[in-house]
Input
Amino acid sequence: MSTHTRRDRSRRLRRLAACAAFVLSASGLATALPAAVPGEAGGATAHAATTLKPRTDVDGDGQNDLLFRYASGGGTMWSTKYVRAQNYTYYGYPASQPKDVIGLGNVRGDGRPEVLQLTADGRLSLHTATASGTLAPTWTGTGWQIYDRVVAADDLNRDGRPDLIARTPAGDLYLYKSNGSSTGNPFSTRAKVGYGWSGYDQLVGAGDLDRDGVGDVLARDRSGYLWYYKGTGSSTAPFKSRVKVGSGWNSFTKIIAQGDQNHDGKADLMTLKSTGDVYYYLSNGNGSFQPRSTWGNGWWWMARAVNEGGNPVPGKHGITGVNSSGELHFHANRSDGLDPSYETSGTFPAGRKLVMATGIDGSNQAAVLAFGGGQLTNVKKNAPVTGDFSTTNLVSGPGDLTGDGRGDLVTRDTAGVLWLRAGNGTGTGFAAPVRVGSGWGTYKALVGSGDVNGDSRTDLIAQATDGNLYIYPGTGSATTPFKSRQLIGSGWNTYNTIAATGDQNGDGRADVIGRDGYGKVYVYLATGGSGTATFAARKAVQGDGPDGEVGGNHNWNVYPQIG
Output
């Protein structure tokens, strides 16, 4: 590991620990939450106060812990409660970052908390969680890439065990009941329990909100309305009709299930804004919540929290730059912009074109490829990518285009024909190219890193030579991977480079940046949904620049190449 990498990582970990300490000094959780009361107004039925079983109690003190990771943390998770911040490493897949980690509760019946790790290529594995990390998986299933959300729903059928729900990109909802098995697959065969759920960009297994012993679900639509699905206790129809319980919730990039925080027997919520401000919402007992309380700020490092409601987005999670010395520098995404500090991750071959390819090695990260002279090389593996690239003049790795959970490549030849090369998950192996179409020579750049338009499919962004910007929505089909193009912007010739950062602000959509001739970088946050691609007005990337200056938007031209 280089000196730069050690120094930058140490500085980032110190910042995270400082953030956790500031939480208590600013608005400590222990003093912010009121004492429990036996019954509440507002339509909730009064019950004797009970204590919910925590789903993410990794240290055994009977309290839910907040588990999260940051973009450049690899497979490392963090656990923080009050002023404590500890390095919390999951051991299931230590060499790669899981796509999602789901706090399930205890499904085996031994009283110990368990988590599910979901990889980008659809492996779901069950692990017992401890304060020092997770134990080896007791079960692993495959094929889960067909869902865009897998959610821990708590106990939905009153058998005392936690259940799962999973949603397809088309909006079909399936229930996976726990089966009580102490070994092997802990879930029964799936059962379809709903449809039309695709309109939600946040789907939260909130837990028992009303103290009736059954898990409830919250869903946020793209207009910012929060909907309450009360659990019924039935396996065949687990939810009642939705009830609107709030508006304006689109101001949050994350809605996180955090269990019972004030010991009144009702599950509560945590929310995060892109500014890094964190709030708590205590449950009223009828699906609605009390006015929010501020918990802390400075949490723009949080890339993914366990049991958050947004879609987990595979991708680059930041920008990689090649400086004039050939060093590779990685700047992670923060919810308020790119991380100004960087990690050095090796060197890049001179005279080659940088290509960042999402998920081609089966992980939730991007691989560094070098293209030139008719050759394509995986830099980290120091190995050639299979295939003939002798007539290729452009390579892009936007992610999984075929729906199998493994990242793919698109390449363009000198005649302007676009080809799809399906990946096999090894980082170097690809199927024979499939012709996508002709006339692609009019584009100066093709970029992508996940879902831009909110339909849970990988999309491709094309910058034309006349400055127009187009999106080719993904279909998930290997034979016809894209729908017809849609114009989404003009005037993009002001930028000498555009790149896809993946999800920049934590809202589950893939975003785009542009660098102008002055070396300034601007981010365009994706705001569309349900297949419509739109962007918010551009925002300058702020913070310390890669040239070492402090404050402002600095000269990112120190990197001849970014991707």
Observations:
- The CA atoms of residues 117 and 214 lie 24 Å apart.
- Residues 1-50, 82-95, 543-552 have pLDDT under 50 and may be disordered.
- Helices lie at 3-27, 29-32.
- The longest helix spans residues 3-27.
